[in-house]
Amino acid sequence: MDLPEEFHLSLPLSMSIARSLGRSEPLKMEIKVFTDSLTGSDLDDRVEARVAEIGSYSTQLTDIVKARDRVAEGIYRIRVNKVENYYSTELHIEKQGTYLSLASLSRQNNLDQVEREQITFANSIRSVSKDSGKHSDFCAGKIAIEGVNTSEYGIYHFRSRKNPDLLLEIMVDSYAPDDQESLLQRVNGANSLLRFLSQRPKVLRQSERIVAGMKVQEWLSVTNNKSEKQYNFALETHGRDKTGPKAPKIHLELKSGQYDLSGKQKNSLDDASAIALWEEIVRSIVLR
């Protein structure tokens, strides 16, 4: 997505990816992207802080740090004995200023293999810029993960520099099937929480449309509650014939009147500006 300039990605963020790396069972990795402005010796300091954090809740039997070493340029390993024969291995990685970690679980009998596969996977992570153009990799901010995965999930939060009350949330799951109930069925159905609200939202628009060649449903609403106006717009893919990187499940929400680090912010939109911003966001959706 090439979002409007005012939106910036909030960090940290989490992703979950699985990949077949030479064995029948795909390796699942939990990935966290912490910052895209790492400098100097910060990586080493961050790794030491993580080791100290694990030590703060470890016991003589659980969460014992078994290894802390550098396995390659810009890649540190922390191996933790979770309990008995179960391990968690974290790789802490720096890619041109972006600091991320990836963690996988293993048992004593496949620990070495899992850690080798983690390093192979880490080498498929590359740094990208906004000018890199369209590509087929799974992306998160300034990094892209090259290669074919068996599952991909990420949830991203964007804030507006122009209007701090605006929050944009995007969920992408490449291989998840559609929900049994579509977006419009959920918001209009008998079990919708909206039916129990004393101040129901005003629906500005609800429709089915085609976005980037995909069938989607959208629901645009506004609520006035005690003189506090809030917009809540949502979009979700629906009716996919197949799943995969070229047919991902996408759920997108734009909300106004939200909290930021300094507290609750006053709504900055009206109907016309909210819909115009929404259309600009929706037009930015492109397939990999």
UniProtKB/TrEMBL annotation:
Q: Which residues form the Tle cognate immunity protein 4 C-terminal domain?
A: 138-288
Recorded hits in Pfam families, A to Z, give: Tli4_C (PF18426)
Domain of life from the UniProt record: Bacteria
The protein in question is named Tle cognate immunity protein 4 C-terminal domain-containing protein
Q: Which organism is it from?
A: Pseudoduganella buxea
Write the lineage as a comma-separated list.
Bacteria, Pseudomonadati, Pseudomonadota, Betaproteobacteria, Burkholderiales
